Amino acid sequence: MIEVIYKGIIIGILVSAPMGPIGLLCIQRTLNKGRWHGFFSGVGAAFSDLIYAAITCMGMGIVITFVEDHQAVLQIVGGFLLMIFGIYTFRSNPSKSLKKPKETTATYSYSQDAVTAFFLTLSNPFIIFLYIALFARFNFILSNDKLYSMIIGLFGIVTGALLWWFVITYLVGKLRSVFNVRGLWIMNKIIGTVIIVLALAGIIYSFWEIYTVNS
Length: 215
Hints:
79% helix, globular, mainly alpha
């Protein structure tokens, strides 16, 4: 159970970490309106991700036998998909889309921040493919007949996502006076590098498993 939780936390962080449109939205709201507006935007995004994670769990459960029979191959494929995702993150420059902070007279509640971020994230169903890659990479496959395990795993995923948004909005909030667009660029370089290294390590390990089994 502990293994399912910590793997779920890692997956939740990896899904949330890249500075895509939702990440930029949370950063902008933190810079413009304050830390908690950015965090609750992240909460909305996290619960939208949770829905797609649940869909992925149920879908993976349908093909659980196939996954178990081809686990090493799927881990390699998942590793390559993660590497592509990491390269994309490394090369992306989110600062091009980040508007300068500006004063605004409109006031928005935390619930409005969460709801808007929720639906913006929900409009991107392609995140399911990222979950499939991550589930295969971390051997995080949950079958339908183990509802308790699935709930624990999903709890780990949403915990990881919330942890990421809590930390990132805290840091941006503390650095509001000195935070600049270059910081986002550096952040993406670091995140992309970590994902690439994890993917490479997983691919090498999977090939080693295949070699030892066949030798």
